[in-house]
Amino acid sequence: GAGVSQTPSNKVTEKGKYVELRCDPISGHTALYWYRQSLGQGPEFLIYFQGTGAADDSGLPNDRFFAVRPEGSVSTLKIQRTERGDSAVYLCASSPGTSGRVETQYFGPGTRLLVL
Amino acid sequence: SQQGEEDPQALSIQEGENATMNCSYKTSINNLQWYRQNSGRGLVHLILIRSNEREKHSGRLRVTLDTSKKSSSLLITASRAADTASYFCATVLYQAGTALIFGKGTTLSVSS
């Protein structure tokens, strides 16, 4: 079956603009994660959804970042008033959501965001 | 914040040699996972080891876990040029959510 997909693959925007990044998880996966990866670093957790609700948003850096998953499948990460420091690769991952902590997360190819 | 730290940061070997990467972490874990990331591509899951396990194998991969030392190692045997990638360990904390906490990774270069 299809893996996790993310759109767009690349996004260039100007400082202060608003951007939306989309994630399509593996069909049937109830758990969905957003991570951010800066150059030369490992991914950093942003937010976790179980179904439609954000079960853990402790990784969101500030209130400019927001994510939704209204129907429990597709998720959108929204960044307001973008800053140059937001430039990174934004990764989405999904997992079945049935085995708690002991689950493999399947990652998408990421969206490379560049804020000029 | 990052809980794991891989060592070495970079490793260069010849095809056919074995590659060993180490990971240390700070806080008690539920499980530890290793991922591979090729240049320009997403992360691929390699292996998951639970906190009550000491060793797991998958093909040419061998992972060990020592919870007393809070460390893990990934051994790739008979390496191939296609193994060239960055390797990350990621932990899921004990009784604290399901998010993966990644280290900075080891960059492995295998030359033919």
Average pLDDT of chain B, to the nearest integer? Answer: 92
Total of helices of chain A = 0
**What is the average of the pLDDT values of chain A?**
94
Radius of gyration of chain A: 13 Å
Overall geometry of chain B comes to globular
Name the chain pair with the biggest interface and residue counts per chain.
Answer: A-B, 28 and 25 residues
End-to-end separation of chain B in angstroms reads 37 Å
Low-confidence stretches of chain B: none
What is the N-to-C succession of helices and strands of chain B? EEEEEEEEEEE
Helices and strands of chain A: which structural class?
mainly beta
CA radius of gyration of chain B is 13 Å
The biggest beta sheet of chain A reads: 7 strands, mixed
Which tags fit this structure?
heterodimer; A: 116 residues; mainly beta; 4-stranded antiparallel sheet; B: 112 residues; 5-stranded antiparallel sheet
Task: Tell me what you see in this structure.
The complex is a heterodimer of chains A (116) and B (112). In chain A, 37% of the residues are buried. Chain A is mostly beta strands and 116 residues long. Chain A has no helices and 11 strands. Chain B is an all-beta fold. Chain B is built from no helices and 11 strands. Chain B has strands at 5-7, 10-14, 19-24, 29-37, 43-50, 55-58, 61-66, 71-76, 85-93, 101-102, 106-111. In chain B, the strands form 2 sheets. In chain B, strands 2, 4, 5, 9, 10 and 11 form a 6-stranded mixed beta sheet that branches. A 5-stranded antiparallel beta sheet of chain B has the order 1-3-8-7-6, with no helix packed on it. In chain B, a hairpin with a 2-residue loop joins strand 6 and strand 7. The mean pLDDT of chain B is 92. Chain A binds chain B through residues 4, 31, 33, 35, 40-45, 48, 56, 58-59, 91, 93, 95, 100-110, and chain B through 2, 4, 30-31, 33, 35, 41-45, 48, 50, 88, 90, 92, 97-105.
